[in-house]
Amino acid sequence: MAFDSFYEFLAMGGHAPYVWSAWGVTALLLITTVWHARVEQRQLLKGLKRRARRANSARGSTQ
Amino acid sequence: MWAFIHKLGSPKWFYGISAKLQPWFWAAAALLIVTGSLWGLAFAPADYQQGNSFRIIYVHVPAAFLAQSIFIAMAVSGLVFMVWKIKVADMAAAVMAPLGAAMTFVALFSGAVWGVPTWGTWWMWDARLTSMLILLFLYLGVIALRGAFTSRDSASRAASVLAMVGVINIPIIKYSVDWWYTLHQPASFTLTSRPAMPTEMWLPLVIMVLGFYSFFIALTLMRTRSEILRREANKRWVQELVTGQAEEAR
Fold first, then answer.
1. What is the mean pLDDT of residues B17-46?
2. Do B109 and A25 touch (CB under 8 A)?
3. Among A2, A19, A30, whose Cβ lies nearest the Cβ of B44?
4. What is the gyration radius of the CA atoms in chain A, in angstroms?
5. pLDDT tens digit string along A14-32?
6. SS3 letters across A22-57
7. By CB neighbour count within 10 A (0-12 exposed, 13-18 middle, 19+ buried), where does B45 fall?
8. From the list A13, A25, A45, which residue is nearest B46 (CB)?
9. Please, what's the b/e burial string for B144-158 (b: 16 or more CB within 10 A of its CB; e: otherwise)?
């Protein structure tokens, strides 16, 4: 451990605003990216399934 | 070789193989980034000159590496698409651009924040910083260009050409610290010599860099799969895949 206490870790030897904002923005962007990719995938699959169901029922009603 | 390239170029094949590869890259990314972050933030010793502000290096350098690597990957994909008409290459190039822009932003932002305690300024119009800002604009240009055409093929070709031309900026970024007098220090890492840092400082950095690369690969696989579904929605195999899944869900 490079720090003696958790408080010292947070304080970063007086450099807390710099260290934590740089790390915070990085973490935020990485997490948002993954979240966006998951939402994108889920919505695409949902849309495709809905379309397939509609095509199926259309085929069913003409028979 | 040709058979392999054609297989790789088949969206259906890519959709299958990427599903198998994806979890490994996500696992590696998570493991490496968590380990590297804990090590870099809490265990690496403080720098004797910069104190704890040097811990920004563990996000700044991996982001800057990715920002440049993604642009090269995008240009190569563009070339592959233009020469061999391989659509998967264009899909991959399309999904890479936003992550590349995000990583360029992270490199610029973390660098600016780091500059305040270290250089006494958050911005300077010096060669390294300016060429990085140009990289951000190139990414935004590629993204905007893709949205500016009604025809997908025209959009893909325009974006490929911009990526291939814009890649000239990458060696300029790399050598900017040697060619011009800049505030930015020269590369901390070279392949030919040992880094001028103690092991417990550079090892977490190597871990973070590898973690960021795994993240990039995992995300690109995942989003290329989504892009395949979007563009191949009318293909038979996609419809079969979707209805098969729908039946499973029931």
1. 95
2. yes
3. A2
4. 25
5. 899 999 999 999 999 999 9
6. HHHHHHHHHHHHHHHHHHHHHHHHHHHHHHHHHHHH
7. exposed
8. A13
9. ebbeeeeeeeebbbb
The answer, for A58 touching chain B at a CB cutoff of 8 Å, is no
pLDDT tens digits along B184-197: 877 776 666 667 78
Length in residues, chain B: 250
Q: Does the ipTM surpass 0.85?
A: yes
Helix, strand, coil percent values for chain B (each to nearest 5): 80, 0, 20
Q: What is the C-alpha to C-alpha distance for residues B25 and B39, in angstroms, rounded to an integer?
A: 21
Distances (CA, A) of B201 to A2, A30, B77, B245: 11, 23, 35, 48
Q: For residue A14, list chain B residues with Cβ-Cβ distance below 8 A.
A: 51-52
Q: How many CB pairs under 8 A join A and B?
A: 98
**pTM of this prediction?**
0.91
Written as one letter, the residue type at B222 is M
Cα–Cα distance measured from residue B52 to residue B42, given in angstroms and rounded to the nearest whole number: 10
**H, E, C per residue of B82-146:** HHHCCHHHHHHHHHHHHHHHHHHHHHHHHHHHHHHHHHCCCCCCCHHHHHHHHHHHHHHHHHHHH
User: Residue B66 has which token pair?
Assistant: 């990715």
Please state, in angstroms and rounded to a whole number, the distance separating the CA atoms of residues A40 and A43: 5
Q: At what angle do helices B11-38 and B199-231 cross, to 10 degrees?
A: 150
